[in-house]
């Protein structure tokens, strides 16, 4: 079994107005993990700690099973592609080709053919200086440049920021293609619900600098449901994960549960079926999770 691509162990980072941590989390190899949470919850700080542009005050981070307290060696950095939330100022006066030539020096596996293909698909102008590009054009260049070295770990901080719907769809397609054809893991920070739905294998929720947990996205969506049954409220005492309930009519109740699959099993064994169910929207799920209702099957 391959080691986790990234592991956080008892990580703390103290800022002027808030503290990030404790963070204990492992990013499994070969999956797409979405880091979600409100603005200011610590998502970008975590990603920057992976890149060692920010350092934790306590705890240990491991990359591909190994800690590097004295700094990431070049051989490890070459395995990581990064699209930061705030774009680099160092290349602003370079053209696309000049910036690509500069980056290719640092990556032994730089694939110029892939880079050219992505620029063409994203319709990025070649002769324009990066500082003269629109935010969306610059974002598309950054995504192409991060994917060109065919990294083992691709880190994307709000990758769709500035992208129009057509470019966003292309980005989704390229990330799926990357997962199918390369030995890549992806960690992305995002506020876009549809991005989580289409891409993520796992969801990590951050709030006020705390990691509230990590869970499989499909489990999250399969288990958080509103259910209707022809019973009275007394039956809720025997059911797990109940968030709220409502008397719909005489002999019929509805309830929201975080463990629908287990609830269905219990009811089925008692000869009781659902009248109907409704899957909660992902933003509803995340809101309830922040409120303290933990998902079933949460990974520590």
What does the model show?
There is one protein chain. The strands form 3 sheets. Strands 6-7-8-3-9-10 form a 6-stranded mixed sheet, sandwiched between helices. A 4-stranded antiparallel sheet has the order 2-1-4-5, with helices on one face. A 4-stranded antiparallel sheet has the order 12-13-11-14. 32% of the residues lie in helices and 27% in strands. The two termini are 19 Å apart. The model has no long low-confidence stretch (mean pLDDT 91). By secondary structure, it is of the alpha/beta class. Strand 12 and strand 13 form a beta hairpin. The chain has 2 domains: 6-219, Rossmann fold, CATH 3.40.50.300; 225-279. Helix 4 runs antiparallel to helix 5.
Strand content: 25-35%
Q: Low-confidence parts, pLDDT < 50 over ≥5 residues? A: none
Shape: elongated
Number of domains: 2
The CATH topology of the largest domain is what?
Rossmann fold
Q: Approximately how much helix is present in the residues?
A: 25-40%
Count of DSSP-assigned helices: 10
* Oligomeric category: single chain
InterPro entries: AAA+_ATPase, ABC_transporter-like_ATP-bd, ABC_transporter-like_CS, ABC_Transporter_VariousFunc, P-loop_NTPase
Domain ABC transporter: 1-233
Keywords: ATP-binding, Nucleotide-binding, Transport
Protein name: ATP-binding cassette domain-containing protein
């Amino acid at each position: 079994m391959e080691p986790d691509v990234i592991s956080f162990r008892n990580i703390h980072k103290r800022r002027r107005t808030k503290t990030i941590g404790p963070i204990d989390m492992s990013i499994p190899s070969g999956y797409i993990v979405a880091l979600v949470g409100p603005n200011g919850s610590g998502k970008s700080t975590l990603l920057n700690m992976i890149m060692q542009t920010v350092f934790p005050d306590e705890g240990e981070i491991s990359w591909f099973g190994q800690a590097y307290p004295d700094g990431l060696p070049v051989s490890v950095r070459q395995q990581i592609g990064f699209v930061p939330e705030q774009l680099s100022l160092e290349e602003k006066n370079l053209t696309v080709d000049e910036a690509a030539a500069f980056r290719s020096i640092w990556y032994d596996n730089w694939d110029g053919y892939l880079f050219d293909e992505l620029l063409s698909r994203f319709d990025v102008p070649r002769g324009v200086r990066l500082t003269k590009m629109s935010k969306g054009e610059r974002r598309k260049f950054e995504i192409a440049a991060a994917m060109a070295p065919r990294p083992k770990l691709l880190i994307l901080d709000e990758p769709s920021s500035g992208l129009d719907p057509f470019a966003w769809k292309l980005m989704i397609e390229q990330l799926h293609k990357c997962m199918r054809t390369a030995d890549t893991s992806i960690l992305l920070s995002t506020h876009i619900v549809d991005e989580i739905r289409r891409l993520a294998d796992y969801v990590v929720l951050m709030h006020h600098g705390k990691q509230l947990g990590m869970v499989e996205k499909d489990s999250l969506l399969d288990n958080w449901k509103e259910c209707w049954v022809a019973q009275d409220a007394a039956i809720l005492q025997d059911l797990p994960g109940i968030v709220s309930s409502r008397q719909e009519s005489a002999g019929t109740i509805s309830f929201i549960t975080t463990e629908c699959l287990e609830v269905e099993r219990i009811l089925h064994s008692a000869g009781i079926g659902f009248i109907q169910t409704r899957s909660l929207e992902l933003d509803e799920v995340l809101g309830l999770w922040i409120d303290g209702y933990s998902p079933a099957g949460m990974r520590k």
